Queue: 4 jobs
Job 1
Amino acid sequence: MASSESNSNQTPSSNSQSQGGRAGAKWSDEEETWLVINSMRDVTIAWLTENFPGRTRGKNGISGHLNDMRLRSHLSRKWRNKTWEDEPAYTMREDVEIMQWHVGGRRHVDTEIFVPNQRAGGSVIARADYLCQDEELVRRVKEAEEAAQAALEARDEASYNVEHPTDDDPADHDALGEATRILHREEDENMVTICEAISRSLAARGEHHEDEGRDVDKEDSEDNDS
C-alpha cells in the first residue's frame, strides 16, 4: 500500500508506436487513470504513447485528451509542469486526497481537487513523499481507510441481499438501513481521523494549514451542489 508508484502503472506495454492510433475512440476510466498518474512524472508524450496499455493511442490522441481534461477543469493546467516553486501552500483538502491516494497504492487520484491551485503532478508526488516521511501518519490514514472500506463492503453486501432475495435469505431492509447508517458514520469518522492525523503531523514539524479547522466534507458537498 505504501509503494511510491503502482507497478501496473509503469510497466511498458507492447503498444504500437504509431502516431495514428484510435485518437477518437472513447476513453475508459482505466485509460484516463493510467494517463493521469503517469503524466505526473517527468516523462514525455512519446513515452506515454509508447507505454500506453491496451489499445494504441497516438501522440495527438494523448495530448488532445490531456488538453480536453484541462478545458473541462478536470485537470490542472500545470499538471505536467516540471517546476512548481511558486505554488501556494497546500490545503487540508489537498493533503487528505494525497494521503488517501498514497495508502491506496497511488493508483487513483481525484485530479479536480488540485485544479483550484493549479498543482503540477510532480508537486503532488513531492508533497506525498514529504507527508509520508511520518510513518505514524501513514499508519493512521491506512487504518481509517480500511475501516471505511469495510463499512462500504458491508453496505454493498446488504444491498445485494435486498436486491436478490432467496427463500433461505429473504430481503432484510432493516439490515440494509443499519449498514448504511454505519457507512455514513465511518465516512464521517474517517475524514475527522485523517484531518486530525495530518494536523498533528504537520504541527510536529512546526507547520499548519491556512484552512485549518474548515470542514472538508462540507466543502465537498458545496462543490457538488454548485
Job 2
Amino acid sequence: MSILYAGKRITSALAAAAALVVLGSAPAWAHVEVEADHAQAGATDVILTFHVPNEEAPAATTRITILLPQDHPLIGVSATAQNGFRPTLTTRHLAPPLQASSGAVRDVATAVTFSEGRITGHDEKAFDLHVDQLPSDASTLTFKVLQQYSTGSSVAWVDVAADGNAEPEHPAPVLRLAAASPASTPSATAAPAAPASARPITVSAAPRHLAGASHAAGVVVAVVLALAAAVSILMVRLRRPRNGRSGPASLS
C-alpha cells in the first residue's frame, strides 16, 4: 500500500467520523430531565418542559406523574393534552393563602398526571407545563416523576444526590433558577393545607420545546476536520519531487 493511498483512506475515515459526530449531536435524554424557557426565580408565564425517555422497550410508557415541589409552590400550573396523553391536575388548598403578583392564591398544584397515551420503542417525548409564576425565594426546584409501563412495572425518578456524591440511578429532575429580579414579588412558603383533589385540566398552553446542538460535538467536529486538512497537506507534499533528485546521468 502506497503512502498516498494510505493518506486517502485516512482522509475518508476522518470525514466519516465527522459525519457520525454531526448525526449524533442532537440532545439525548438518558433520564427524565426538566428545563424552562425562563429559569429565573419569580419569573412569570413560564413553560417547563419534561423530557421522558422510554427506557424499558419493548414495554411502553403508559402513565407519567410529575410531583411538584411543595416547599416552594408553583403558582397557576396548567397543561394540555399532548403526545397522545391526557393531563389531570391534583391541587391542595392553602390556609393562609399565598401572596403572588396576581394576588392571593388559595389553591396550588401538587401533581400533574399524563395518562391514556403510549411512548414506545426507544422514543422520548417532551411534556410541557405552563406556570403563571415561579417562586421567587428558591434557587432550585426539585421535581419527582413516577413513570409507569405497560407491563405494570414502574420507575420512580425521585433520588436526590447529596453534594459531592455520584448521581443516583434514578435522579429526580432538578431545575436551577437564576436570582430573582428586584421587581419580583416574594412568595411565601406554603402552609399546611387540606387534602388534595384531582380534576382534568382545560387551560390551554401551547407546547414549546427547547432544542440545541451540543457544543462538545462541535468541538469534536472541528478537531476531526483539522486532522483531515493536515492529512491533505501531507498528500500534496508527497506528490512533489524531492529537492536535489535529478534524472539519469550521462557520460561524456
Job 3
Amino acid sequence: MCGSSDLRHPAIDRRPPPARSSLAIRTELARPWPPVSDAVELTALRELGGRLRVQVAGIMRTDELLAGLVRLPVLRVLRVNPRLPRVRNVPERITITA
C-alpha cells in the first residue's frame, strides 16, 4: 500500500526551507515602511527598486548598514528604533527618525 509520503516528488522533500527571496519576504519588503534586519534584506529591497522610507528592524553592523544605504539612491527617510545604537554618517539625502 502506498502512503501519502510515497506520492511526493523526491526533489521536493530535499529542498531547503524557503529563502529570503520567497513571496512572503518580498511582500514584507514592499510595504510603505519596509523593515530590514540585515544586509541581505537591504539587497533584496534594492532589487525591488528601493523605497523612500525604510525602517531598521534589527541590529546590523554599521559598515553593512551604510553600504546598503548608499545602494538605495531613492531612500530619503530611515526610521531607527531609539533602543538601537545611533546611526551616524549616512548620506546627506537621508533623514533619520526614531
Job 4
Amino acid sequence: MRISQKPVVFSLLRAAMLAAFSAGSLIAEEPRAPERYCNPLPIPNYAVGKLARDVTKGAPNDGGLWLSERKEQYRELADPTALWFERRIGMDPAEFDSAGNLYVPAATSTPQPVAVSAEATPWVPLNDGEPTFGSSSAPNTAGRRAADNSMMTWWLPAADDAQPVLTTSFASTAEIRAVRVIWRDVGLDTRNGAKPGPFRYRVEAETSPGMWATIGDRSASTEDFLIDYRECVPTTAGRARLVVLGHPEGIQPGVSEFTVFGPVR
C-alpha cells in the first residue's frame, strides 16, 4: 500500500494477489476526509507483447510519481517449470488527470527515460528474435528461446557445460546501453535443499571481430535477482554474450530472456 500526495488530492493505491490481481484506488481531498473510488482504475492489467504483468506500487526519487510493474508469475517451490513465478521488472511514470484521478498512460516492457522530453531517445531490444546460440543446449532448450520475448521458453545449457555462454547478434552494429537477464531456476526445490540464490555472470560485447569487452560484471554477486537489469557504459558492438559463472547449488541456470537494449536505430 502506498499513499501518494499531490496538491489538494490524496490517492490511496492498493493491490493484492489472489487467484488474480485485485487492485483498487481511493482519492480524497484530505488524508482522513471521505474518499471516493478512482474511476477509471489507474492500474493497467494487460499484456505488453508477451511480458504480461500488473502494476502495483513504488516510486524512484526523481520528483515524479512512478508505479512499479510485476510479472504475473509465481515461483513454485518444487517444479518451477509447471507453474509461474513472480518478480518485479520495472516502473512506469504515473500522472493525474484534470479531475485528480491517478493513472498510468501506458505500461511498457522496455527502459523508459526518467524525464520525458522531445530529446529523449527510447531504448529498445536490440536482439529480439535475432540469432542467439548457446555453447551447449539441453533437449528442446535452444539458445534462440532466450531471445523470443516469451517467459514460457528458456535456454538451458547441457549439464556438463562447465562455463555456459549464450551469444546473441544484432541486425546491425548498435550502441548497447543496458542488459536484462531473466533467469529460470530449473531444479528449484526448497523442500529438498535446492533453494533460490544469486546467479553470477558476466556480459561482454564484441566491439570488433573477435574482440570482446566486459560491459557488465556480476561475477561476485550475492543477490538473488531472478530478473536482473543493469545499465552500462555506452558500447558499440555487433554481438553480445552472457557468460554464466555461478548459480545456486542444486539449480540449473536456465535463461528465460537475455535482452540487450539500446537507442532506436
